[in-house]
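Sat 14:20. Reprocessing the chain from the morning session after the first attempt stalled halfway. Input below, unchanged.
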Amino acid sequence: MQKIPISIGILALIQSFSAIFLLIHVIISIPFIIVAFFDSAELGFLATFDTIWDWIMISIHATIAAALFARKKWARNFILFISGIGLIFGLINLAAGNTFSILAIIFDIVTILNLRRKSVRAWFVDETF
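Finished this time. Tokens:
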């Protein structure tokens, strides 16, 4: 069994935490969506769209966490791409008024900066590390 570098383990935990945090947000918002549909159909549809958007963010962060533990040669570039998409979606989510996405934005920035380090790059490429 190969040892995972501490920074990769921390990144995977951070991304997992972000997915769980957004999942909690979705669960908390379900009663509000039901109430919004009774009050106004337009507001209910908007709240449903926000929940769908959060599910997209959850899947992005869970995918990044899984790819970090996979340690394939393509995983680093995949994670950088998905983190970039997650960062853009997080900024859009923040602009829409979801303050829960602030942590997701921070996690994506930390992931992108950490994956650009030479030692992390070497870990993904070198099979014998």
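The first helix runs from residue 6 to 39.
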